[in-house]
Each structure stands twice: as C-alpha cells, then as structure tokens.
C-alpha cells in the first residue's frame, strides 16, 4: 500500500514504512483551508493546515510512503486516528507520479483530503489572514508556524522545480507580519 502525504506527513509520517518517494499527484492544489483544533491549534484558536482542492490543471508535490505486511494495519490505524478522527479528513485513491527520472507508471496511493462538509473546514481567506491565524495558533504537535515553515522548506529543498504560490505567499505574509510582533529589549526599556 502507498500513502501520499502533502502536509505534515512529508516530514513527520509517524508510522513505519518500507520506502518513500518524492513526487506529485495531478488534479489537486494544496490549500491552507482546513482548521485544526488538536495538532496545530485549539478550540479557542484553531490552526490552519492543508487540504487538497480539486483543480484539473494543478499538481501537488509531496511524499508517498510504501507500507508492507504488518506495517499496513498499524499505519492505517494510526492515520485513521491522526487524519480522520482528529483531523476530519476522508480517504481517496490517487495516481502518484514519482520524481525519479526512471520512474515506472504512476502508483496508486491513498490520500487524506478534508472536504468542505467536515466541521473543521475553514475555507478560503487571504494569505495575510491565514498567516495571522497561523501566528497565534499552537496545538499538541507544536506551533502552527512550524507546520507552515517545514512545509515550505520541504518544497524548497525537495521540489525546487515546483511552484506552490499559495504556500509561499502565506510564508511571505507571515515573515512580513512577524517583525511587527517582535519587541526588542531596547523598545521594552523605552516604555
């Protein structure tokens, strides 16, 4: 079984796997439109995490993990709790295209997608509003800023040829907001 990750699964799968491949799926774009009240946010301040939006001309880069034998049941049980029960995601089968030049045919992979019907779905917002929400959100897996920056780093280092305007625009908005929130010792002494 292959499992495709396009969010935190790219750097923290949390399950045992036999192999992993960087690559992409077609027909979807990644969006920070899913709310998170557990891993990267709270009930009071939901974080923003990614989901996939059907988009016939787009492709989304990520990592596919191959699980075999005893790994299958354990990984699916873990992901069901992490993505479906706690996250509000549904599963779908997609064609994964490995990045390798000598890659064979596309691989069928399982992917978790949050739809607008789930109660945590937040939907679209401006990059600035999403960045502002990410800055103030934190959950049991860590700060929402870490989620955004790790995903941007993955794209930058493992998929430098790929464009993800939505992701990088939010990262840029976050970086422009942070200095406004930072208070130096000098400014504290002045008050």
Automatic annotation (TrEMBL):
Its EC number is 4.3.2.7. It catalyses: glutathione = L-cysteinylglycine + 5-oxo-L-proline. This is Gamma-glutamylcyclotransferase. Keywords: Apoptosis, Cytoplasm, Golgi apparatus, Lyase, Neurogenesis, Notch signaling pathway, Transferase, Unfolded protein response. It is found in: Cytoplasm, Cytosol; Golgi apparatus, trans-Golgi network. The keyword DNA-binding does not apply. It comes from Calonectris borealis (Cory's shearwater). The gene is Chac1. Belongs to the gamma-glutamylcyclotransferase family. ChaC subfamily. PANTHER family: CATION TRANSPORT PROTEIN CHAC-RELATED, GLUTATHIONE-SPECIFIC GAMMA-GLUTAMYLCYCLOTRANSFERASE 1. GO terms for biological process: apoptotic process; glutathione catabolic process; nervous system development; Notch signaling pathway; response to unfolded protein. Catalyzes the cleavage of glutathione into 5-oxo-L-proline and a Cys-Gly dipeptide. Acts specifically on glutathione, but not on other gamma-glutamyl peptides. Glutathione depletion is an important factor for apoptosis initiation and execution. Acts as a pro-apoptotic component of the unfolded protein response pathway by mediating the pro-apoptotic effects of the ATF4-ATF3-DDIT3/CHOP cascade. GO terms for molecular function: gamma-glutamylcyclotransferase activity; glutathione specific gamma-glutamylcyclotransferase activity; transferase activity. It holds the Pfam family ChaC. One of its GO terms (cellular component) is cytosol. The lineage of its organism: Eukaryota, Metazoa, Chordata, Craniata, Vertebrata. It is an enzyme of class 4 (lyase). Its main location: cytoplasm.
């Amino acid at each position: 079984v292959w499992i495709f990750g396009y969010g935190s699964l790219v750097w923290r799968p949390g399950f045992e796997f036999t192999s992993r491949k960087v690559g992409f799926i077609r027909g979807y774009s990644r969006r920070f439109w899913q709310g998170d009240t557990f891993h990267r946010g709270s009930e009071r301040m939901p974080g923003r995490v990614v989901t996939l939006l059907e988009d016939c001309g787009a492709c989304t880069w990520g990592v596919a993990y191959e699980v075999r034998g005893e790994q299958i049941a354990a990984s699916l049980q873990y992901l069901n709790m992490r993505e479906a029960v706690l996250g509000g995601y549904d599963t779908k089968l997609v064609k994964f295209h490995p990045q390798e030049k000598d890659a064979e045919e596309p691989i069928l992979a399982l992917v978790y997608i949050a739809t607008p019907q789930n109660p945590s779905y937040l939907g679209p917002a401006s990059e600035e509003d999403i960045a502002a929400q990410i800055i103030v959100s934190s959950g049991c897996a860590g700060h929402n800023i870490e989620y955004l920056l790790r995903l941007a780093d993955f794209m930058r280092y493992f998929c430098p040829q790929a464009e993800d305007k939505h992701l990088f625009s939010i990262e840029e908005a976050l970086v422009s907001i942070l200095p406004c929130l930072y208070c130096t010792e000098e400014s504290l002494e002045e008050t």
